[in-house]
Amino acid sequence: MEKRDDLCCETTEVHGELLKIVNETMPDETELYDLAELFKVFGDSTRIRILFVLFEAEVCVCDLAAALRMTQSAISHQLRILKQNKLVKSRREGKSVFYSLADDHVRTIIAQGREHIEEE
Amino acid sequence: MEKRDDLCCETTEVHGELLKIVNETMPDETELYDLAELFKVFGDSTRIRILFVLFEAEVCVCDLAAALRMTQSAISHQLRILKQNKLVKSRREGKSVFYSLADDHVRTIIAQGREHIEEE
DNA sequence: TTTTCATATGAACAATTATTCATATGTTTG
DNA sequence: CAAACATATGAATAATTGTTCATATGAAAA
After folding, report:
1. Bridging pattern class, strands B96-101 and B59-60
2. Domains of chain B and any CATH numbers
3. What is the model's pTM?
4. What average pLDDT score do residues A109-113 get?
5. Smallest Cα–C1' distance to nucleotide D8: which residue has it?
6. What average pLDDT does the structure give for chain A?
7. In whole numbers, what is the pLDDT of chain B averaged over residues?
8. In Å, what is the separation between the CA of B38 and the C1' of D4?
9. Nearest Cβ partner of B116 from A9, A38, A112?
């Protein structure tokens, strides 16, 4: 059984190629960071609930707050995060600001997430 | 312009139906929580990097640690989280434990995430 | 212009979390 | 059995984050 010096434990086949795989297929630092940031946005049940509302309708901030029974401030803070990450877009109409889904990746990602947790 | 008493601000059409929408299409508390928990798992670049390695090969803990240049402990802690959330499964072979992807939702979710951030 | 309504935002606090360190568990080898 | 190796885990720490409270901005109405 031959010795490897680049990796620590002794396995059966992958090893030498592992670093190559990692270097060739791993996205760069920036993309990894952005990916994690994106998923963090989905990782809060308040934001998820906001998204479920926006799946059905374009709504203004205070309607969201009322529907989800949370303060306007809390909703507004979360909408800012959703918007910064382009999950949501906004449109001003008089005093109100209406929010809606920015694109359909959001639906797909959440749908896949639901499939995953229901597959148990 | 008629007055509403269930919601705070005055808009154009959705309002009265909003609460109905919310009640009918919103997943229950438990599912919302589980969904958020699932996405939290994707919301860390160390775990994302682990997943990218597992996209390509089944690997043991210390190979992962070496490839990602992190301590065995840090990797092990993260693998536990990935496993608890069924993103990853493990198999013992002698002293080593090999980890691999649990199912394909993981690929889909990450692929959609990449599409989203690259669409900018 | 002053008031009122809708939204945004900074600061503070509590809660969560990723990593490190030390150590425990489990497996093989001598 | 003891020693060595691979992995897991509890405690501690530093960093991040969601909500609240107070207040600011922006738009319409009086």
Report:
1. antiparallel
2. 15-118 (1.10.10.10)
3. 0.89
4. 95
5. B76
6. 88
7. 89
8. 38
9. A38
